[in-house]
Amino acid sequence: MSTRGWLLFAAMGVIWGIPYLLIKVAVAEIEPATLVLGRTAIGTLLLLPVALLRSDLRAVRSHWRLLVLYTFVEVIGPWFLLSHAEQRLSSSLSGLLIAGVPLVGALLAWATSHDDRPDALRWIGLGLGFLGVALVVGFNVAADDLLAVGEVGLVVLGYATGAMLIARLRGVPTIAVIAASLALAALVYLPIGIAQRPATLPSPQALASVATLGVVCTALAFIVFFALIREVGPNRATVITYVNPAIAVALGVSLLGEPFTASIAAGFALIALGSFLGTRRRSVSPSARLLGETGA
User: Which pTM was predicted?
Assistant: First the structure.
């Protein structure tokens, strides 16, 4: 992976490692639908004026069906499900479960005969990363939390699908896609988000969490993530979800007093190794390289 790819990868690992903590803080006082509305509305307010000034929105008109599908699987469904799940699950566990995205992405790529199908070594990397997550989680999920775990499972499927869909929007300005997607999601959640708004003003911590989710983890995050997908491809881009759990657990341990065990330490080592192997480029045979260079 290129230097630029690694820098984007590191940035996304941090930016999308902190939402789990912020969501956990916010949903203690704010309903999931209202939280999603606040997050998408802030992102829309930041990015839509830029898209309008640059006339970028016209570029998405011919791709509106794909944009609607992407918005549903990447934002409308997952953000509500994740927020709802975190009303029961810890921020650390939620972040760790999301680490299944690369494996699901690889399975989807194989099923759809995508050009970026992983080779044997990258499969090993994905497997090691998943094993690391399993060690961290420790299979200690209470029976009454299975519904929340299932919700996060749907989030994993949505994120993996969204990464593949966005790769089909090459050539469409990034700001236009993000702004249109966030605006659509905000409109969907506007009625229920307003109806479920808190009766009293939430605490400064909850309001700050929503603001950070909207500015950093939404507007900025999507810009960086799109750049990462275009740099390394959709499947390698989703391997950031092997780094995000490390950030999520570190924040959960330091700020929320969640436990840090030997299995977590061992799991982190496997996650790091899995990320390295999972993001490597496949070797290309000389004949295949020649065909690529000649445009065949």
Answer: 0.82
pLDDT, tens digit, for every residue of 35-80? 999 999 999 999 999 888 877 778 888 888 999 999 999 999 999 9
Amino acid 187 reads L
d(CA 225, CA 171): 15
Count up the domains in the chain and report the number.
1
Domain enclosing residue 210, as ranges: 3-282
Query: Of 281, 220, 293, 290, which Cα lies nearest the Cα of 2?
Result: 281
User: What number of other Cβ atoms are within 10 A of residue 64's Cβ?
Assistant: 11
CB contact at 8 A, 116 and 281: no
Cα distances (angstroms) measured from residue 121 to each of 48, 108, 117, 137, 248: 41, 18, 12, 24, 27
pLDDT of residue 117: 61
